[in-house]
Design goal:
Layout (H helix, E strand, L loop, with lengths): L4 H28 L5 H13 L2 E6 L7 E5 L5 H9 L3 E5 L8 H7 L3 E3 L4 H16 L4 E3 L31 E12 L2 E2 L5 H4 L7 H9 L4 E7 L3 E2 L6 H36 L1
Parallel strand pairs: 1-8, 2-5, 2-6, 3-4, 3-5
Antiparallel strand pairs: 6-7, 6-8, 6-9
Helix pairs in contact: 1-2, 1-7, 2-3
């Protein structure tokens, strides 16, 4: 689990080259062939590989008319979900100021939301509803911020207020649970969470640079069973359901990691 500046240097140049290579191709694909996700997914798959992340996926991923709802731990979540899912991200407006990621987000037609202004939220919710009505898939991080990943923060239900979409039969909502579980095959202890999680006042560039200098990491992504949006009475009920499902899965994942850690410690003592 030692950080290697040399590894950061060896990884950063392929990352920069990959982004420069894919973004123009994505723009061409989007404008000429009306395919917004071909090179966008390829871009993220490459970034996941270059950042040394092994993704273990479980559950069935829905394809059409889906509002994906996920817990949020790091900017790495964007790479991972972007590599797996053809969907538009709904992100906080602060991302517009993040270097490199803001360019990727803009090209991916990310919907930026300013959660601090009620009128803006109402306008943005209308945009979300229209996108779903047109058959677009969306990815929502309802915690409103990232965390250390040890637990799921309370969901902000405002963006679940999709109005008349609750009466539509074809719109689905699918919760996603993300857990960063291992580093170099070793279960991640609490003290190593900041290597994965990007939260609070952490500097983005510094965190990314340090992460590039780590070994191979593993993340578990579980796609829960989808539920029709019209099975919920209102936004608060939909928000509560997603929070409970995701929180339960994240809790189970960490209990399993604790058991693995105890087993490894016991085996070490027997040596």
């Amino acid at each position: 689990m030692l950080y290697s500046p040399l590894l950061s240097i060896l990884r950063i140049f392929p990352v920069i080259f990959w982004v420069i290579f894919c973004l123009p191709l994505h723009m061409i694909s989007s404008s000429l062939f009306k395919n917004d996700f071909l090179f966008y997914n390829i871009l993220f798959k490459g970034l996941v590989y270059l950042f040394g992340i092994k993704v273990k996926v479980s559950g069935k991923i829905e394809k059409k008319n889906v509002l994906f709802v996920s817990n949020h731990i790091s900017y790495l979540d964007i790479f991972i979900l972007g590599s797996l899912t053809k969907a538009i991200f709904v992100a906080k407006s602060e991302i517009k100021s993040w270097p490199i990621i803001n360019k990727i987000a803009a090209i991916g037609k990310t919907i930026f939301v300013n959660r601090s202004r009620v009128l803006t939220i109402k306008d943005q919710v209308k945009i979300l509803s229209n996108a779903l009505k047109k058959g677009r898939n969306l990815i929502l991080f309802p915690e409103g911020t990232s965390s250390d990943g040890l637990k799921v923060l309370p969901f902000k239900s405002s963006l679940f207020g999709l109005g008349d979409l609750y009466s539509k039969k074809k719109i689905k909502i699918q919760p996603i649970s993300i857990t960063y579980s291992k580093l170099d095959g070793v279960p991640v202890e609490r003290k190593f969470r900041p290597f994965f999680a990007w939260f609070g006042n952490m500097d983005l560039v510094t965190h990314a640079w340090q992460f590039l200098g780590l070994g191979l990491s593993e993340v578990k992504v579980h796609y829960h069973k989808s539920v029709l949006l019209n099975s919920f009475k209102n936004r608060k009920e939909a928000s509560r359901y997603c929070f409970n499902v995701i929180s339960e899965q994240v809790g189970k994942n960490f209990k399993n990691l604790e058991c693995q850690e105890k087993i490894k410690l016991y085996e070490f003592k027997l040596l």
